[in-house]
Every structure is written in C-alpha cells, then in structure tokens.
C-alpha cells in the first residue's frame, strides 16, 4: 500500500473496517510507500509490531507523553499500586497542569500543589498524600503489573514475580529465561525484553525506587522443592474467591502444572460453578475432584 492509495474496505466484526484490496487502477503518478515508524514520533522509544498483528505500538509506556494519562491511571489502579483517591479526572488534571510527567512524579506531589486543583480541598489533598505514602509499600507482582508492560496482565505478572523473585533478575533475563516461565511464549517474552531495554523506562523505574516504592523479594526455590511439583491440575467452572487465571498462577507458583484437558495423568480437577464436561470426564476417569474450598485450603497450606 502507498500513501494516497484508493482502497476497498468492508465491515469486519461489529464495527471495525477491514482493507480488502488496493485499487491500483486509481493510482495517479508516483505514490510513495508508507513505512511504519521504527521509533515513536512522540517520545523516541522503539516501536514494535508483532507478526500477524496490524497494530504498531510504542514501548516507552512509563515515559511517553502520548500514553501518559492511561499509564498513570493503570499505575494507580486497584490491582496495581492501588492509590486510593487518584481517579481518572484527577489524573487528567495533574497531567494537564504539568505536575506529573511519569508515575514517579506522583510521589513528589505536595499538598500546596494539590489544593490549587479544581475541587481539591485541603482534606482531599491530604488524603491523597497519605494514599500515595501508603502505596509506596507494595509487592513485586503488583509493581510488575503496574508498569503496564504490553501483554503482561495480573496472572503473568504474578508468574514472573514467583519465577524470578526480584525485579533485578527479571530485568536481566534473556528471551530463553523468560520463555521458561509457564505460559510465556515468544511474543510476550519479546514485549518484556523490549520494555526493559528502553532507557526511558529504566529511568522511571529508578526514580520510583528512589521515591521509596519498595517490596520484598521472593525466595525462589528449585522446582523439586516446591510442594506441588509434579502434580497436574485442571480448572473448570467459575471461582468466587479468585479468577481462574489467578488460581492457575497460584498453583504454578507452587510447582503445579495446569492444563486445559482431563486425562489419566491429571491429579486434580478443580470444579467451580457451572463446570461443564471436564468434571464429568474426571468422574469417569476417577480423577480426584476439588471444590473451591479445598483448593483454597491446598494453596494456603502448601504456600505457608
């Protein structure tokens, strides 16, 4: 495709248009080829486009001005650093007033600045300062998730934390080491590598640590010492106390293998609400079935 081309599009899915073909007969004169940028036009960080995907994205998530508001909202969200009181509208104000350029700047805010903002009374300002101070103490998995690395959700962040035990070990890991983590394939591994390779992201992480954001490293045990090493689990049905991804990550952290199908090699099938055919197959094969209460007890006992 070239800049200025006439194209035929059609509806794909519910609303997204898809380019079907280029109408080459409509070309007039010389048209230049369009090349996707190799660096972000806003912050200069490397751009990435995975094979088979249409989107090209910037990897400077902690630093890029174009992503600033969304990166801050994600960083402050309940499952990330859980900064109570830092809602979307307040993030918008902080960025628009140039008080905050990256997540580390949040911890440099003072009450005098905050009370200048619209609808921000002294009590609200102090509450936010207190919430920011409280959020400085977090966990490794929450911090990894808060960074907003492309393709790294809560379950993957937990797996990375449990596998590497420290941020330093994660940041130094090569692609092979990353792919040794359960459920991390080449695309996710490449996203993690590229994120930590960006100088801007490294600088913001250093600023966050200097601002007092901290966590305890996790003791990484050899696989053979993990309590569920060698055990195979299958999860089916909806769980109330956690998502299936969270349950899977918790089991994997204890050394278990979690698969998607029941066989004679399966040790346990965890059954939630509306389990479906996997529970039936477990009964047929004589595989031990655990309800959610038994799962939680197993995780709690083995994790202690």
What features would you highlight for this structure?
single chain, 304 residues, alpha/beta, two-stranded antiparallel sheet, 13 helices, 8 strands
* DSSP E strands, number: 8
Helix percent band:
25-40%
Query: Which consecutive residue ranges, at least 5 long each, have pLDDT under 50?
Result: none
Output the radius of gyration. Answer: 24 Å
Q: Could you spell the SSE succession in H and E letters?
A: EEEEHHHHHHHHHHEHEEHEH
Number of helices: 13
Global shape: globular
Distance between the termini: 58 Å
Mean pLDDT: 89
Can you list the strand order of the major beta sheet? 6-5-7-8
Class based on secondary structure composition and strand pairing? alpha/beta
Estimated share of beta-strand residues = 5-15%
Largest pleated sheet: 4 strands, parallel
Describe this structure in a few short sentences.
This protein is of the alpha/beta class.
């Amino acid at each position: 495709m070239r800049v200025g081309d006439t194209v035929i599009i059609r509806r794909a899915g519910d609303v997204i248009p898809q380019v079907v073909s280029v109408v080459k007969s409509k070309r007039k004169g010389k048209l230049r080829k369009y090349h996707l940028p190799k660096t972000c036009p806003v912050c200069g960080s490397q751009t990435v486009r995975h094979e088979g995907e249409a989107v090209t994205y910037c990897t400077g998530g902690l630093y890029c001005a174009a992503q600033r508001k969304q990166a801050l909202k994600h960083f402050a969200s309940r499952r990330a650093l859980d900064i109570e009181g830092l809602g979307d509208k307040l993030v918008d104000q902080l960025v628009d007033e140039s008080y905050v350029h990256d997540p580390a700047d949040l911890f440099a805010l003072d009450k005098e600045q905050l009370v200048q903002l619209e609808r921000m009374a002294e009590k609200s300002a102090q509450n936010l300062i207190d919430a920011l101070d409280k959020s400085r103490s977090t966990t490794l998995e929450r911090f990894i998730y808060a960074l907003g690395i492309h393709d790294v959700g809560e379950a993957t962040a937990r797996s990375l934390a449990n596998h590497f035990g420290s941020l330093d070990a994660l940041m130094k890991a090569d692609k092979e080491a990353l792919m040794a983590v359960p459920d991390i394939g080449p695309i996710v591994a490449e996203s993690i590598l590229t994120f930590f390779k960006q100088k801007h992201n490294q600088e913001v992480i250093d600023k966050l640590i200097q601002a007092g954001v901290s966590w305890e490293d996790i003791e990484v045990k050899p696989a053979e010492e993990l309590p569920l090493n060698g055990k195979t689990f299958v999860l089916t049905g909806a769980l109330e106390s956690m998502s299936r991804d969270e349950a899977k990550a918790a089991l994997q952290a204890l050394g278990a293998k979690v698969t998607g199908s029941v066989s004679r090699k399966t040790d346990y099938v965890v059954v939630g609400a509306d389990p479906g055919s996997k529970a039936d197959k477990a009964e047929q094969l004589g595989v031990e079935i655990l309800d959610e209460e038994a799962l939680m007890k197993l995780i709690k006992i083995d994790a202690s």
